[in-house]
Amino acid sequence: MDPQTFLNIAQTVTKLKMYPYFDIAHYTMMCLSVREDTPNQDSESDNTFSRKHPVCCWLSCMLTCFAGSILANLLLGEACLIPFKNHTDILTATAVWYLIFYSPFDIVYKLVKFLPFKLCIGTLKETQRAHKVYHGVTYTAKLFPHAYLLIVIIGTVKGAGSGILKSFDRFIRGIWVPNSNEFLQPSLYTKACLIASIIFVLEKTSVIEAPHAVIYFGVVIFFVYFKLSSLLFGIHDPFVPFENLFCAIFLGGMWDAMRRAISSSKSSDDSGKSKTEKKND
Fold first, then answer.
1. CB neighbours (10 Å) of residue 234?
2. Which residues contact 36 (CB under 8 A, 6 or more apart)?
3. Is the pTM of this model over 0.70?
């Protein structure tokens, strides 16, 4: 591709407005995740939870849809309910929630689950994720220009807030799984948002000297690529091999393996000696 054409496309992507299409895609994926994570709500024929607890179901979906903003405001000392002041966003998210859970014959849910539609919605949602990460980094950098750790944290939270709040969201729906959370088992999206936040911080500190549109577009491609890989090929976490290598080298994994090898060799030698002694006896 011609570099100028690529730059023009990148500049167009940076100027995209998130409302309504990208926000609707985000709300759709969030409501879909709540439905598939809810007991008795993972199929077209069994809708017990949403029928018996509609208010709880709506609250859970709204919390998931606006989790990034809620957490970011909490960490920055601002009101957690600020994301709910925009009635247009709330009404749009509510309309999506209603269609996902209560559409006639579950037609909307079936369409969203259809792979071509899911690929399109996932692409729009990941584009919006990149926008949220960049917005979080930019906003925090204005408040705390040199607090790079805080900037990275807020950028990550803005992009992956739904995963971080999943334990609390599950608690609202009557599910308690304390050993499954983003701190113990970080998801691909949390790791990707962390990397994207670091990239944006490096851009702002002039460590990475490249046009902003190219960097932003690269992050969008980064998110979209991993989303499509997950949907099409089942690649859920490509970072695992690098994490295992890092842990083996720097976090004691190599030394633990050596200790186990030495212990096993000693135990085998001891067992061999005991067998020899028994034969001599």
1. 7
2. 42
3. yes
Task: State how far the Cα of 137 lies from the Cα of 159, in Å rounded to an integer.
Answer: 10
Taking each helix axis as running N to C, give the angle between helix 54-65 and helix 87-102, from 0 to 180 degrees, rounded to the nearest 10: 130
Give the whole-angstrom CA distance, residue 24 versus residue 243: 34
- Tally of CB atoms within 10 A around 243: 13
* Torsion on CA atoms 71, 77, 78, 79, rounded to nearest 10: 70
The 10s digit of each residue's pLDDT in 135-159 is 999 999 999 999 999 999 999 999 9
Q: CB–CB of 54/41 below 8 Å? A: no
- Locus of tokens 């008795």: 40
- For residue 222, the tally of other CB atoms under 10 A from its CB is 16
Q: Which residues contact 186 (CB under 8 A, 6 or more apart)?
A: 163
The CA distance from 130 to 216, in Å, is 8
Any idea what the Cα angle at residue 75 is, between residues 71 and 76, rounded to 5°? 115
Q: What letters, b where the CB count within 10 A reaches 16 and e where it falls short, cover 183-197? A: eeebbbbbbbbbbbb
In this prediction, residue 11 has a pLDDT band, given cuts at 50, 70 and 90, of very high
Q: 30: which residues sit within 8 A by CB, 6+ positions away?
A: 61, 64, 65, 162
Residue 157: closest CA among 183, 175, 180: 183
Half-sphere exposure of 81 (CA within 13 A, CB side): 3
